[in-house]
Amino acid sequence: MMKKTKIFAAIGGLSIIALSVFLIAADHIDSPTVAGTKVDIADFYAFEGDNPNSTVFIATLQGPLEPGQVTQNAVFDKDVLVEFKIDNTGDFKEDLVIQAIRRDSVDKQFMYFFGPSDVDVPDTERDGVSGLTSTVNINDGIGRVQISNTEETFTGESGGIKFFAGPRRDYFYFDFNRFNEIASGAAAPEGFFPPASATDFFENLNVLAIVVEVPNSMLGDAPDHIGGAVGITGLPKAYNVWVSTKRKQ
Amino acid sequence: MKTYNIKLVLLAICTSLLFVQCADDDENGNVLDQDLCSDGIQNGDEEGIDCGGADCVPCDMSVDFTGVFVQEDVMGRPAVNTAFGGTNDVKNSYNIAATSERNDSLTFPLVNFQRAFEETLELYHDVYGDALGVDLDYETNILGLDAPTFTTVLAHFDALQVAPNAPTTYFDGTNVLTGRTLGDDVIDISLTLMFGGTSGTRFDGNNGTPQLTSDGVGVGDRDLTLPFPYMETAISQ
Prior knowledge:
A: 249 residues; mainly beta; 5-stranded antiparallel beta sheet; 13% helix; B: 237 residues; 29% helix
């Protein structure tokens, strides 16, 4: 099958150097050579919104961005579909997806949103690999919002769902430089610095953000918390959620 | 039978069903058809999103959402692949893997993510053991997870948990793993689970130990009180 061939090629058929060309940050703290592709997810947040009956999903991409020209020039890639995935049965296969993709009209950029779409397809009908391939769920349109920029902020709301896309300040914080010294062994036997001398690599940097706030009534009942499966008791029921970026073939 | 004020009915429809920018009413309070054609939804008599029907551009001239999209990056919990992946081979394979299938040896015959993660976790301890001249291994952490269980959770169940009916946080002193807010110190929490041992304070910089459970950096002056979209506007130069 084509997909498996690609995966085997990625693992076994290419040299280390060729592989490193395809490295994509799973989150912020990859090396500078890795960051910079437009599929690059920087961070993912999920939390209760100002309305306690809603959940907010935030995906940040292409971070970190230096203030000024770099931030102003950062754009969402029209060939990249961002997909928030929600498992509400506890099997770590998504049951619902919320999609976002950029499409332009005249001289304006818009982010279109779709979902929550039911993708709970029986395993026998899947392509053998869960959720790695998607098409846009055009029948589940939520709406569109003009993509914000460094000067103007646009937000959209439709059917109880709120949505936004554009550059924002990066909320990730970490002494990334010290972590590299620790991970490489250069810092040993010392560890991280005390607060007075630690530095936040991400202070005053920006990132592209997609923010969606969804009523919990649209997400179904949450399953038992995965913690119970490994002996962490007393945790509340919780959705399992993650985000992926997919490139148009 | 009750009669409704037409203006109010149309206004209610406008604000509840249509995109919020539908403020272009004609003098009688009727929503102009052009707005239906640009609200990002297939509605009215449209044949596709904002296209077709009596008023919108023909669909073959409209927004194109066709195509097949294939995963290239993925993220659940913070810092997982980067901190534990170890080698570039592992990190690369991890990003194109389905979340539920990273434990599938048929799909990934050459990579065992759980074992790779566990080796990385032990490697971090070896580095400090060598520097301190002692034998140093991972110690079961404050959640009671030993190395194989901890790395299995990280590698094979990589998703954020978010609770609809409880406070949402990575850890706030009381609630744990019920979400991830913009202000959560996911680095310190992750470091504590990796290096904190059963007490959570095994390597906290006290008693001659290296500080490995906190990076010393907090949220700083980032505003955590904003309404939707909850994040500050971009920093300008």
